[in-house]
Design goal:
Layout lengths: L2 E6 L3 H12 L5 E3 L18 E2 L9 E2 H14 L3 E3 L3 E5 L5 E5 L4 E9 L3 E3 L5 H8 L4 E2 L2 H4 L9 E5 L3 H10 L5 E5 L9 H8 L4 E4 L2 E7 L6 E6 L5 E5 L2 E4 L3 E3 L31 E3 L11 H21 L4
Helix pairs in contact: 1-2, 1-7, 5-6
The chain binds NADP nicotinamide-adenine-dinucleotide phosphate.
NADP nicotinamide-adenine-dinucleotide phosphate (NAP) binds next to helix 5.
Length: 319
């Protein structure tokens, strides 16, 4: 028998969708994903240290603990969880057909895609080690920048897009100095953001520069950089490194079955709606949001997707 609703993904969007769908008696089935070396159930928050900007946690909460609490809350109602990936989908007929990494075939009347996006990393071994241990390397300045560990330090942001510039400006509130390291001599960011960054006295630029290593044992002490023109290497002392080189949405398993924007994010049909190009399939969280990318906005769109799916199922007489 077909499920009423399958939710793919287990970040704030997926769990919030599950809580709402479960309380609407839809008996949601969540595919929370399999742990791998690039992603674990719970998504990007599992790589975040302290979350201080999610309302309801006045003293902050660890990202891992927060995702565990979300998961527990979904289990309190009737949510069924599978620790498997959905590896392919067939949305060409209804009920929709999904295949899991264990080889199971699932049929569902509606689907919420909440598979998130992965921050792009430089993929340097010491960058990954210090990011996972909370040692001063992060892919989200808004999430981590206000932590005491970064106060009054020289902070480095790598990237030349709007995110890098925005994060650098944000970090000037806490840092003694912010250095933007960019691989070219020209920013990709919008002119207004460029202007703001260039007129901010605390921001310096290292042009035509790539990072070749991250230094420090338990916490970051600096980065090794290389001038792309002279090929000269040098070390730059810093107390934090923020990677802002874009995000990759987790949509490859969809195999072209749904409309994506040019960056691979799921396009929704209307603003303030989560319905996708396939009627009965909804999207929530970072997989459909290249702009805000926050836990709270992901949770918000998870709620929206569940309500929209519930209303659609009711409208079709499928509940
Ligand atoms: P982005 O525009 O794709 O910029 C990524 C930056 O990272 C580029 O400057 C790129 O360099 C650099 N980069 C990529 N791979 C790299 C690598 N391996 N090593 C070193 N540098 C690397 O990404 P984004 O800044 O996250 O922005 C994404 C979208 O969101 C954009 O459309 C942006 O306008 C939007 N956004 C808007 C705002 C705002 O309006 N306030 C804020 C944030 C984001 P190159 O330039 O050399 O390619």
């Amino acid at each position: 028998m077909a499920e009423k609703i399958v939710i793919i993904g287990s970040g704030p969007a997926g769990w919030t969708a599950a809580i709402y769908a479960a309380r609407a008696n839809l008996k949601p089935v969540v595919y929370e994903g399999e742990p791998s070396n690039i992603m674990v159930p719970g998504g990007q928050l599992m790589y975040t240290t302290e979350v201080e900007n999610y309302p309801g946690f006045p003293s902050g909460v660890r990202g891992t603990e927060m995702m565990d609490l979300f998961r527990q809350q979904s289990l309190r109602f009737e949510t069924q969880i599978f620790t498997e990936d959905i590896t392919s989908v067939d949305f060409s007929s209804h009920p929709f057909k999904l295949k899991s990494s264990e080889g199971n075939e699932i049929e569902s009347l509606s689907v919420i895609i909440a598979t998130g996006a992965m921050a792009n990393w430089l993929n340097l071994p010491n960058e990954q080690r210090l990011a996972h241990s909370g040692g001063g390397v992060s892919a989200c300045a808004v999430c981590d920048g206000a932590l005491p560990a970064y106060r009054d330090k020289v902070l480095v942001v790598v990237g030349g897009g709007d995110s890098a510039v925005e994060e650098a400006i944000y970090l000037t509130k806490f840092a003694s100095k912010v250095v933007i390291v960019h691989r070219r001599a020209e920013l990709r960011a919008s002119p207004i953001m460029q202007e703001r960054a260039k007129s901010e006295p605390k921001i310096e630029f290292k042009w035509n520069t790539v990072i070749t290593d991250v230094l420090g044992d338990k916490v970051i002490t600096g980065i090794r950089i290389q001038d792309t023109i002279s090929k000269e290497e040098s070390d730059l002392e810093c107390g934090g490194l923020f990677i802002a080189i874009g995000h990759t949405p987790n949509t490859s398993f969809l195999g072209g079955s749904i409309e994506l924007d040019e960056e691979g994010f799921i396009g929704t049909r209307q603003s303030w709606r989560t319905a996708t190009s396939v009627v009965g399939v909804f999207a929530a969280g970072d997989v459909m949001d290249p702009y805000y990318k926050q836990a709270i906005t992901a949770a918000g769109t998870g709620c929206m997707a569940a309500l929209e799916a519930e209303r659609w199922l009711a409208h079709k007489g499928l509940t």
